[in-house]
Amino acid sequence: MNFVRTHCTNVIKQVAFAILIVCISANVNAQQEIHKIYKDSIRQLRSQKNFSPKDTLYIDLLSNLGYHLRYYNSDSLFLLSNEALKLSKDAGYKEGESRARLCLGDYYSDKGDADNAISNYTASLEIAREMGNKNLSLRIMNNLASENAYKGDYAHALTGYLNAIEIAEEVGDKNMLSIMNENIANLYASQKDFEQSLDFYKKVKKINGELGDEVIIAETLGNLASTYADMGKLDYAMFNINKSLAIFEKHKILDWLAFTYEIKGKIYLKENKYKWALYWYNQSELLHKELDDDRGKIDLFNGMAEAYLGQGKDSISENFALRAYEISDRIGFMEGTQKCAYTLYSINKNKKNYTEALNFHELYQKLSDTLSRNENKKSLTMLKTKTEYDQQKQLLIEENDKALAKQQRYITAAMAILMVFMVITVLVYRAEKIQKRLNKELEHKKEVLEKRESELEASNETKTKLFSIIGHDLRGPVGALQELLRLYSDGDMEPEEFIEFVPKLREDVDHISFTLNNLLSWGHTQMNGAVTKPTIMALESLVSENIKLLSEIAKKKSIKIISELAENTLTWSDSNQIDIVVRNLISNALKFTPQNGMITISARERDKLWEVSIRDTGVGMDKITLKNLFEKNSNITTYGTNNEKGTGLGLSLCKEMVEKNGGSIWVESTLRKGSSFFFTLPKREKSYSKAV
Fold it and tell me: Can you tell me the mean pLDDT for 572-578?
């Protein structure tokens, strides 16, 4: 998770007042210096004879001190903000009330209380808008959009940032322009839409260059390094984080310094350099002891858990994973809980504590499914929101152009009375220019219409496919399950009779789960959301995991599954996509292989490729079935030897995934003798040394 950038504009008179009365020692870090400035300023005001707690300077100092204590002492932030709010109301000081509610929103946000955070931000924004204070409104809009992003409401988050950017451009606030464009970049990075993310980072870099503030530049470099690490571009990530780290060490900004140390550990972790990863994670942990930042600790503890697990130190890994799990659960951070659950599953599996391992695996799978569904929905919502926003903006531009054109016509008519011949010349020239512009616009609109027509056809094709699968393969099992439950709940079926149907219900639910997984994977590729990210992958490990996963089905039919893959069968491919391919092909083989059959998985080298085969002793296929098997719009669904249902989608999904990884897929089959599915994958690429 990238660090969300925020901003607080100090009141000039406060800073001037504080500098006059405080002397900063050279060995104190920047945050402690700021805290000391505000504390001494508050004490100085209170000591004056004519001091009044309703003094607006005093109220602003309380809010600013609370703001700067946000990541160091959240309880102080809460107390100071409430005191500032009460005094502001008593004094009728609207700006103070708005700023106090902004700080309270920050407090509730950090505690994971989204409802209270949004409530305070909204109230703060209403007051700022009533005063016409656009600079304060910008800060609030940024924090409100960030809270919507934490909450998962990406539509409101993106719209909030875009609206705030317009205001920042209007008032010329380049600092907030940098912050909000970077937060949008982080928003897209969290959705794995790295292309859009990098586009916004380009804008941020340009703005930062105009600002010339090295701390702001360092903040951007830190977030950019995290994004490059998630993309797998570790050299770029290391280059950016080293530049960022040097600046934060120079200025002694603890919260950002803790973040950069954590990102550097994350980069080494992705390189499997666990010793160096832990070195930097430990540096970050030392700083976090001085901070009060739960969101930052989740990523840190998860990273340390993974690093210790990589070293085989399971007990230490479990300790950090449980600490991350407690914080994630307390503030409702699903992504953090998901990472902890997988680490704890691996640890308990190593300890042979299979009951606990299964519990964590089920939790991980549940969160993964939820996040997968949410991520797809969020990505589409973000795209739709941005499209609607751009359309509204374009309409305003067009209306403005029409108004300007109308005004120009009046001016031209007035000038025509005095200079007829000159007007005629100008009109002829303008007519030619307008004609050229209209021709260009017409050509552009034609291209847009053709593109939209193509997109509409693709959308209809996708919709038809989805409805076909849902109606054909899901409605039956779901309807049967619904009817059985109705009979049981209405008392038309005895419990003993219902128990007899439990094995059948389980098979139906397993089929629905398998179908939905394939459906989600396929739908993701159709919505341009699936980006192939090849890495070095051990194919034999992936096959072994899938054999374990499907072993129960094989056991029911007394089918032997044999893997003949040698060790170090290394490929250069996307492990998640190839996992889908292997699982579908083995599942199909189990479906069409009768009792006491055999499935054999092997691989042989062919120049720069691995040729993988999955052979079964099943029922085989005729030539007509073989011809249409991998067609994109084919919806072939047949029943297995024990009447198992298929999805009509698995093989077309396999074809897409294999081809995305630079391979091909084909099948050989003979009726009543069996089938052999073949697919190819590139061998691993040469490793190159990387600069640290």
Answer: 91
For the record, the structure tokens of 415 come out as 């000038």
Burial call 221-247: b when 16+ CB within 10 Å, e when fewer: bbbbbbbbbbbeebebbbbbbebbbeb
Dihedral of CA 532/536/540/545: which sign?
A: negative
For residues 286 and 613, give the distance between their C-alpha atoms in angstroms, rounded to a whole number.
52
Pairwise CA distance, residues 417 & 415, whole Å: 5
Does residue 527 surpass a pLDDT of 70? Answer: no
Amino acid of residue 689: S
Please report which helix (H) or strand (E) contains residue 571, including its range. Answer: strand 570-573
In Å, how far from its chain's centre is CA 252?
30
Whether the per-residue pLDDT at 119 is higher than 90: the answer is yes
Largest CA distance in the chain: 102
For residue 476, give both structure tokens: 């039956």
Which helix (H) or strand (E) segment holds residue 612: the answer is strand 609-616
Read off the pTM: 0.52
Given this model, what pLDDT does residue 481 score?
Answer: 75
> Which of the two residues, 230 and 387, has the higher pLDDT score?
230
Burial 540-571 (b: 16+ CB within 10 A, else e): bebbeebbeebeebbeebebebebebeeebbb
What's the pLDDT tens digit per position in 321-380? Answer: 999 999 988 888 888 888 889 999 999 999 899 899 899 999 888 888 776 666 556 655
Measured CA to CA, the distance from residue 248 to residue 226 in angstroms comes to 16
- Whole-angstrom CA distances from 385 to 125, 276, 608 are 22, 42, 44
Both tokens of 481, joined, read: 């399950």
pLDDT in tens, 174-183: 999 999 899 9
Tokens of residue 570, six digits: 């290394």
Given a cut of 70, whether residue 638 has pLDDT beyond it is: no
Hey, CA dihedral for 273, 278, 279, 284, is it positive or negative?
positive
Q: β-strands 598-606, 609-616: how paired?
A: antiparallel
- Of residues 32 and 674, which shows the higher confidence score? 674
What's the CA gap between 195 and 189, in Å, rounded?
A: 9
Q: Where are the alpha helices (DSSP H) in 134-193?
A: 134-151, 154-171, 174-190
pLDDT of residue 307: 94
- What letter represents residue 612's amino acid? V
- 250 touches 288 (CB < 8 A): no
What pLDDT is recorded for position 18? 43
Average pLDDT over residues 413-431: 77
What DSSP line would sit under 646-676, residue for residue?
--S-HHHHHHHHHHHTT--EEEEEETTTEEE
Residue 587 amino acid letter: S
pLDDT confidence of 647, banded at 50, 70, 90?
very low
Q: What is the 3-state secondary structure (H, E, C) of 229-276?
A: HHHCCHHHHHHHHHHHHHHHHHHCCHHHHHHHHHHHHHHHHHCCCHHH
> If pLDDT is split at 50, 70 and 90, which confidence band does 486 have?
confident
Rounded Cα distance, 579 and 599, in Å? 17
Give the separation between CA 661 and CA 485, rounded to whole angstroms.
44
Q: How far apart are CA 645 and CA 511, in angstroms?
A: 7
